[in-house]
């Protein structure tokens, strides 16, 4: 199903979507150039380096690279991350050997205003060559011809296979369904947290299938002191805003998908979601529980399992030590988990895209990838870096990495922001309380997403 791209409605609507998601000269200019292919004839130019697809340390590009300055805009969540990015830039500038100088310009995320400000800057002719990115911004920028097509660069890159094909597919889906405009950088993959001690008490192993997962939810719902009341609920359900992500795993586990939420398989996944609520396998507050509530319930021991990503793993270990672990959402007729994202892009206005690709590929699979992901705790996209002991010996990272091959995103459409913030929680709430049937719920969600 081809997506309807943002930008077809008014600019005000497009900017609202961006907000909800979330001076050096050189390679910055208002003109455009066609991306050179890997077969471009090598030129001998004084003071220039011709890059090939065998550049070392995760750097590669097509075409000729001349010494130049690349202006890079990024945001950092805290001062430590800000310093880390500056350290990465400094290392790249010292070691790239091609005369490329990256100049980092930090601006705040500001609740998603980063994307709006970036759009305004580029529409106004701003001299930014490349930037850190969120997928939700892609359609608007593509519709306005602001992003460079990275497909030929990636195809010529010797480290292309170092990133899972599914990650590239997600990048394509966020754009025009044909080309890659976004370079992978780091991800957050949702997995299932669980308490080994509760699993032991329930007499169960880590579930390997979706059906076993549903059984584990039931068996981990227990009255531990014999007073006739549930003390531990099997699962921490997120029924409020943001709950569409773990919910999507139930739908796909039955063989459904976001392409058509009205199929029998998708409806059955919704029925499973309703059943675990009605049967008392989740806290009675689940309808209104958001991120803070599901994490608090898990930390207090009220729930045996919940779904989140590595961002909360350090706090979990502080509370439980070794009595907390994780597993990737298991497979049924289908398998899916939500992927959070942070990427990079190169703008069409960049005069030397080959040089800019050297930088973004360094972040994707070079030393910049290693430094950033080890320093921030985000999941790397580079398979070779994922394979290092640093990530493989971390059970939460391992669960994330194991889930990357089937991770995905909610379709990015004109309707997505309203669907996530309002339609999904309101409609699912009605289904959980029995005001509407699972079939009616899924029809409403389908119509709202693809209207």
Automatic annotation (TrEMBL):
Signal is among the record's keywords: yes
PROSITE patterns reported in the protein's UniProt record: PROKAR_LIPOPROTEIN
Extent of the signal sequence: 1-29
InterPro entries: Bact_solute-bd_prot1, SBP
Pfam families linked: SBP_bac_8
Record carries keyword Amino-acid biosynthesis: no
Keywords: Signal
Superkingdom of the organism of origin: Bacteria
Biased composition (Basic and acidic residues): 33-45
Start and end residues of each stretch annotated as Disordered: 30-60
Protein name per Swiss-Prot or TrEMBL: ABC transporter substrate-binding protein
Organism expressing this protein natively: Lacrimispora algidixylanolytica
